[in-house]
Design a protein that fits this description.
573 residues; alpha/beta; Rossmann fold; GMP Synthetase, Chain A, domain 3; 3 domains; 5-stranded parallel sheet; 27 strands; globular
Length: 573
């Protein structure tokens, strides 16, 4: 297994790096990594527009944590970062320390990450939905030296839960009101002498772009979560690819509803905002009235929405009429198939371009930029094939990333149009290896390509596009024939009676597996298996792919970033 390497110890701690020194040096020499660290990029934003609005809290923050929502300028955000860094430094957090973070999307969360990175420390983010089982496992796996959270979140006392995890031995810091005894409040202005001391400490640090800054965690949809270390260099390479496609500017207003705990939040909003400037508006959890109010109040230009919400808005004229979307220019979506008619209608009827996103914590974040794929119906289901010969893409990352599809049975590279294989890639945005002790299998092949576990189809003239088929582990095998659940889900999501759908396999004594559709019906609609089968037959789908069982449900289980928890669905069957 390729594991992360380590630099020299600092004051008893090891400054972990993410790639071999030779690899990092090569990326820098080729210009594939930028020489600036994330704190240096932040400093550039502060210097460029110190008094411009930089970031806003969720409008309902008071209901969530009891704290008053704020909007800060870049200068004010910088002050908040220094205050947080000073408190952490005063209590022993230093370069090389790892700190667990469980804070909802907010100014506090953004400033916490920037404060830790300014100290040379590592953040290990955790969804706020995690409880003692998950939190204690992450704290142990990373040897976290502290935990940062909030006093309360709704009806949960997160700071109290954090104290219980450490059993009194792990320092806990908390934002907001209702901080219990034994937990140190954070986020308030500190004494000028402490600020000067921490700034003197920071100015003396020796930092490289290969230094670890985060340990995020895989979604764990099919297995125990794995730790994914990332450094300044590869995070900014990922973000640069997204920034090239979306083009955030100092005039952009970005509404972020995805938890800032992994690729979706970091690469979809946070880091491209840091690169391009503008105004970041935080939101969590997804609350439609609050979400729409933030779009209208802040005149949001860019945001992300789950595919189900895109579809629901088009079907619900009354809901859409209440939402002022006139400022929106671009909506990113992914994590599930995008119906081409929905993407086309958003662009043609509403004048809003929907961008197809695909990414993983370990690999490159692919996106179908409108400049690369102008036809919205094509963009809905296709992503750029960075390995296509003779094609120049909008993002510079395309030229720096090697991509191939490998047949999961034969191991041969797929070259025929229509051929399917596992997506494999290598380059400056691909991580260096899992956190030791959290994974058993080597994620790289013999040539150093990351084995993504995702099956794609080679499409378009000259193989210029990739179309997501499904996860390798989620393919349903019925009598020796492969069924990709995502393919069937994409077709069924266009049925007017279907609000959400998941397709999973269930055991069959003769065929091995059969196909079951688990459906959340649209409001007031009735769904039958016969209707769904007829819908697929009308699209001339092969008969072996047709669902042979229907289960109705009020909700589909998902992880904190919206991915289906298929193992839970299968367990119900």
């Amino acid at each position: 297994m390729v594991e992360t390497s380590s630099a020299t110890p600092v004051a008893g701690r090891r400054v972990e790096t993410c790639h071999p020194e030779e690899t990092a040096r090569g990326y820098l020499e080729r210009g594939w990594w930028q020489p600036e660290t994330i704190p240096e990029v932040f400093a550039q934003r502060v210097a460029a527009a110190p008094d411009a609005a930089a970031i806003s809290d969720p409008a309902n923050l008071a209901e969530l944590t009891g704290a008053r929502p704020r909007t800060l300028s870049w200068r004010e955000l910088d002050d908040q970062v220094i205050d947080i860094a000073a408190v952490l430094w005063r209590t022993g957090i230093r370069q090389g320390s790892t700190v667990a973070v469980q804070v909802p999307n907010s100014i506090a969360l953004t400033a916490t990450y920037l404060a830790l990175w300014r100290l040379g420390a590592v953040a290990t983010p955790m969804p706020v939905s995690y409880r003692r089982h998950e939190v204690s496992g992450i704290v142990a796996a990373t040897a976290a030296e502290a935990l940062i959270t909030v006093g309360v979140l709704g009806d949960r006392e997160l700071a109290g839960e954090a104290l219980a995890v450490g059993e009194g031995t792990l320092p806990v810091f908390a934002f907001g009101p209702r901080v219990p005894d034994g937990v140190e409040s954070i986020g308030y202005p500190v004494d000028i002498a402490v600020r000067e001391s921490v700034q003197e400490y920071i100015s003396g640090l020796s930092v490289t772009v290969n230094d670890r800054v985060t340990v995020c965690w895989t979604s764990g949809t099919e297995a125990a979560p794995k730790g994914v270390p990332r450094c300044h260099g590869d995070w900014l390479a990922v973000a640069g690819g997204v920034q090239d496609g979306l083009g955030f500017t100092p005039e952009s207003v970005v509404l972020n509803p995805f938890p800032m705990v992994n690729m979706a939040g970091f690469a979809g909003s946070f880091l491209p905002w840091l690169l391009g400037g503008g105004h970041l508006v935080q939101h969590q959890p997804l609350d439609l009235p609050v979400f729409f109010r933030q779009i209208a109040d802040h005149r949001v230009t860019h945001t992300t929405m789950p595919p189900a919400l895109l579809t629901m808005l088009l079907r619900n004229d009354e809901l859409r009429a209440k939402a002022d979307l006139s400022s929106l220019r671009t909506v990113g979506s992914g994590g599930a198939p995008l119906p081409p008619p929905v993407v086309a209608r958003w662009q043609e009827a509403l004048g809003i371009q929907v961008v197809n996103f695909f990414g993983s914590n370990e690999g490159v974040s692919l996106l179908g930029a409108p400049a690369d794929i102008p036809d919205p119906a094509v963009r809905a289901q296709h992503l750029p094939h960075y390995g296509a010969a003779g094609v120049r893409w909008t993002t510079r990352l395309a030229e720096r990333t090697a991509v191939k599809l490998v047949d999961v049975v034969s191991g041969e590279t797929v070259t025929e149009i229509g051929g399917r294989g596992e997506l494999r890639m290598r380059g400056p945005a691909v991580f260096g290896g899992y956190l030791p002790g959290t994974a058993t299998a080597d994620p790289f092949d013999d040539e150093g390509y990351l084995c993504s576990g995702d099956v794609f189809e080679l499409c378009g003239d000259g193989g210029r596009y990739l179309r997501f088929v499904d996860r390798v582990k989620e393919i349903i095998i019925r009598g020796g024939m492969n069924i990709a659940p995502a393919e069937i889900e994409g077709l069924l999501s266009d049925h007017p009676a279907v609000a959400e759908v998941a397709v999973v396999g269930y055991p069959d004594a003769v065929l091995g597996e059969k196909c079951c559709a688990v459906v959340v019906p649209a409001a007031g609609a009735a769904v039958t298996l016969e209707d769904l089968v007829a819908h697929l037959k009308a699209r001339e789908v092969a008969s072996f792919k047709l669902p042979e069982r229907l289960e109705l449900t009020d909700t589909l289980p998902r992880n904190p970033v919206g991915k289906l928890l298929r193992r839970e669905i299968r367990a119900r069957l």
